């Protein structure tokens, strides 16, 4: 960030990293409803100015609509009476039409998430997952040894550590995707797993977006469409899911995991490729979620907002109660 802020040349940045956008940029080109609007300042200043401009346009449009309504009433009052009144009505109508021709356009808010209540999973037992003595090596590279994991129903558990500490490997073992060299993972009573990986392996070519949700959920289409709206995919319902952008595939994959009804969610870097509005949509979904969440993330803002209950520090596997002092470690990836 410091390098970009001090760089003397021009830089065009496309990023969802809000701290970067606040620290290093001096203007914003906002693409909204297929048009570009220029704003001076960083991202936070852009948000404030965007809201101010929109409020001003809404006020101007409201005054125009009120004036048109008033002139229309006058036209109706004078029309069809004397010739003099008819001429006056015609003059007023001309004035009214000039206002109509210059109406201030107030565009719909792009990408506003749809409020939706997510279906909740069947509750698991008190201890939905236990792992004991886990160890994993790739050739001569020992990733970790003697890792224990215990989870409580409804708990939010964060896995943290430096690059190469085995966070994703541990999550893959818990999901049953990777086999440990030592140790075992046991699921508790009525426990079911939903696993989100960054590779989007569950998204198939030639299958529409809505059809993907139908494949994991028996909820009515009205609910599924509401979830797609919440994740800002309402206009992609019939699109081949394989043709979505990286961020859109992330949103679809997350929607599939949540709708699948697992009572244990394992999420590996779920906010990668997500824009700020989509992050808010994911946060809302996880806030509502009543199952157990085990998360790997380097997104400090998202983690702080989510407020996990505990953390596992890799590669040693120490269990600690979460507090915001861990955010420095979250960021060090």
Q: Can you characterise this structure?
A:
This protein folds into two domains: 1-110; 129-331, P-loop containing nucleotide triphosphate hydrolases (Rossmann fold), CATH 3.40.50. A six-stranded mixed β-sheet has the order 7-8-9-5-10-11, with helices on both faces. The protein has eleven helices and eleven strands. The chain is α/β, with parallel strands linked by helices. The mean pLDDT is 89. The protein has helices spanning 2-6, 18-24, 43-78, 83-101, 167-175, 209-216, 221-230, 246-259, 276-288, 300-306, 327-331; strands at residues 27-32, 35-40, 129-138, 141-150, 156-160, 182-187, 193-196, 264-268, 292-296, 310-313, 318-321. Helix 3 (43-78) packs antiparallel against helix 4 and helix 6 runs parallel beside helix 8 (246-259).
CATH homologous group name of the largest domain: P-loop containing nucleotide triphosphate hydrolases
- Main sheet specs: 6 strands, mixed
Q: What is the CA-based Rg, rounded?
A: 27 Å
Known CATH architecture of the largest domain:
3-Layer(aba) Sandwich
Average the pLDDT over all residues and give the rounded result: 89
Which spans have pLDDT < 50 for at least 5 consecutive residues?
none
CATH topology of the largest domain: Rossmann fold
How far the N terminus sits from the C terminus, by CA atoms, comes to 15 Å
Structural class: alpha/beta
**Total beta strand runs:** 11
Note the beta-strand portion: 15-25%
**Given the C-alpha coordinates, what overall shape results?**
elongated
Sequence of strands across the biggest β-sheet: 7-8-9-5-10-11
Q: Specify the number of helices.
A: 11
Order of SSEs? HHEEHHEEEHEEHHHEHEHEEH
CATH class of the largest domain: Alpha Beta
User: What is the domain total for the residues?
Assistant: 2
